[in-house]
Amino acid sequence: MVPGSGLGRAGMLPWSSCVCCASCAVDGVVNGDVYQESNGPIDSYAAISQVDRLQSEPESIRKWREEQKERLEQLDANSRKQEAEWKEKAIKELEEWYARQDEKLQKTKASNRAAEEAFVNDAEDIFPGTEWERVAQLCDFNPKSSKQAKDVSRMRSVLISLKQAPLVR
């Protein structure tokens, strides 16, 4: 860069692109034209030279390439076969799981309906003086089956005493 002039090398402005050679092209852009790189040979002479190079390869290397290609194809076929088997097995297991879940759901629904029906029938039988008996039916008085962390023995004893001798007004 020329000091004080704002010009870069060869008298060019710093923001202008260099047009002097292909090595100055950035990301395949030369003079504003975009060029794509290709993986294969561009002209037919390059393709012929590539075929000649493959033919001039030693027999052992060519044989190894063919064997390697066959081996890889066989491995690919085996992996596709195994993947298909796994998918079939997974689909079968998933269908069985859905069937078990549906069966559990139907059983739960049936038991809930029966319990609800029994609860509604018991709720309709309201007689004066049976309130504490109904409360006692809703409570679990077995201390071993209670999975609460708090001590509820006092409440349990109060409810049992009210069930046995209800309050008289």
Residue share in β-strands: under 5%
Largest sheet: 2 strands, antiparallel
> Main sheet: which strands, in order across?
1-2
Q: For the terminal residues, how far apart are their CA atoms?
A: 108 Å
- How many β-strands, per DSSP? 2
Mean pLDDT: 75
How many separate helices? 4
Give the assembly state of these chains. Answer: single chain
Instruction: Give the ordered list of helices and strands.
Output: EEHHHH
**Helix fraction?**
55-70%
- Low-confidence segments: 12-17
Give a quick precis of the structure.
This protein is mainly α and 169 residues long. It contains 4 helices and 2 strands. The protein has a two-stranded antiparallel sheet with strand order 1-2.
Question: Would you mind describing this structure in some detail?
Answer:
There is one protein chain. A two-stranded antiparallel ribbon has the order 1-2. It has helices spanning 44-55, 59-124, 131-138, 153-164, and strands spanning 29-30, 33-34. α3 packs antiparallel against α4 (153-164). The model is unreliable at 12-17 (pLDDT under 50). The N and C termini lie far apart (108 Å). It is built from four helices and two strands; from the N terminus they run ββαααα. It is mainly α.
